[in-house]
Structures are given as structure tokens and as C-alpha cells.
Design a protein that fits this description.
A hairpin with a 7-residue loop joins strand 4 and strand 5. By secondary structure, the protein is α+β, with helices and mostly antiparallel strands. Helix 1 packs across helix 3. The protein has 6 helices and 8 strands, in the order E-E-H-H-H-E-E-E-H-E-H-E-E-H. The C terminus is likely disordered.
Length: about 190
């Protein structure tokens, strides 16, 4: 899948590069970030972890996985992970950002840009995200982009030796088209 570059004035969404390894460790090596992500995101986050992940991302041709570049540094990540089979028009969005930039509106703008990209440049019809119960900030990020809470999966996640609820948020293309003032014929192209 095409890896776009999206310039959002104060930061850029762009493909990851092998030379992002040092900045990835600098910004990702934080237990407060890891606690809000799936266990595949290691803590501590080492240079070896960064290089392995960047190699994996470089080989991925099915998903859209971008760095969030702030002040010239890869300071976070955002990705669209497409589902298969009968769920092939669904895509999961996932994201994280360096704690240094929390509360500055960066993630809300990044998610909004990825929503627009998804619904105008791909064939995906539904974007969803799964948020841990103790992360209301991430829930607000999604709500600002028009996502609606669809479900609470009770005690569905084992994180840090605790069973917790997972909140499922989703946004449908037709709802986004109406709320963004676009016509239903917009966004029919596919990458």
C-alpha cells in the first residue's frame, strides 16, 4: 500500500526510515506509552527493538504505517491495519506519541488526517480503534474526529497482570462524508 507524506504544518506524517532508530528509542522508551499499547510494543524499548520494528515496517506492503515527525524527530507513530476476509473493508487505527507532546493537539490532528486519507484514498469503509479503559485521553482524540463508541468489551484485555475493559470506537465512511460536508461520491478512489 502507498505510504503517503501528509504535511500538517507543525508536524508531518511520513513513512518510517531506518535512520529513525535512535529517535524511536528516545521517544518510545517510556512505560506510560507502553501501558496504553498492546504487548507487542516493548518496555523497555531498546535500539534492537527499534531496528527490528523498522525492518518489519519497511517490508510491510499491506498497511499504512507512518512516523509522526515533530521538530525534525520521529516522535510517534500512527498506522492503519487492514483486516482480511469478510472484514476486508475494515481498518484498525493505532497510534502513540512521545509524552513530550501530549496535550498539544498533535494526535487529534494526526487521527483526523488519517481519517481523511482513509476515506478519500483507500477502499476501506470503516475505521475502528480499541482503547484501554484507563485511557480517556485517547477516547477524546477519537471523538474529536467523529468516532463513536460502539461497545465495551468487558474484561477483554490482560495488561500488566490486570484484566481490563476495552472500549471499541468506530467511524463509518458515510457518516464521515456527511459530517465533513462532502458528497457521497467523494472518496471513491482506491490505492
Amino acid at each position: 500500500m502507498h505510504q503517503p507524506v501528509i504535511d500538517l504544518k507543525h508536524f508531518i506524517l511520513r513513512p518510517w526510515r531506518p535512520e529513525d532508530d535512535i529517535m524511536l528509542v528516545k521517544h518510545a522508551n517510556n512505560p506510560r506509552i507502553a501501558s496504553n499499547l498492546r504487548d507487542g510494543f516493548p518496555n523497555p524499548y531498546t535500539l534492537s527493538d527499534a531496528r527490528s520494528w523498522l525492518k518489519l515496517v519497511g517490508e510491510n506492503r499491506q498497511d499504512v504505517i507512518l512516523a509522526i515527525e515533530v521538530n525534525g524527530e520521529a516522535s510517534g507513530g500512527i498506522g492503519l491495519y487492514g483486516l482480511k476476509d469478510v472484514y476486508r473493508y475494515n481498518v484498525e487505527i493505532g497510534y502513540w506519541l512521545s509524552e513530550r507532546y501530549w496535550g498539544k493537539g498533535i494526535m487529534s490532528k494526526a487521527v483526523g488526517a488519517m481519517v481523511e486519507y482513509t476515506f478519500t484514498r483507500t477502499s476501506w469503509f470503516r475505521i475502528f480503534a480499541c482503547i484501554f479503559e484507563y485511557n480517556p485521553s485517547s477516547m477524546r482524540v477519537l471523538e474529536k474526529s467523529g468516532f463513536k463508541r460502539e461497545a465495551i468489551h468487558r474484561k477483554a484485555v490482560m495488561k500488566d497482570d490486570r484484566l481490563i475493559d476495552e472500549y471499541l470506537y468506530a467511524l463509518l465512511k458515510d457518516q464521515w462524508l456527511v459530517s465533513s460536508g462532502r458528497s457521497a461520491s467523494a472518496g471513491s478512489s482506491s490505492d
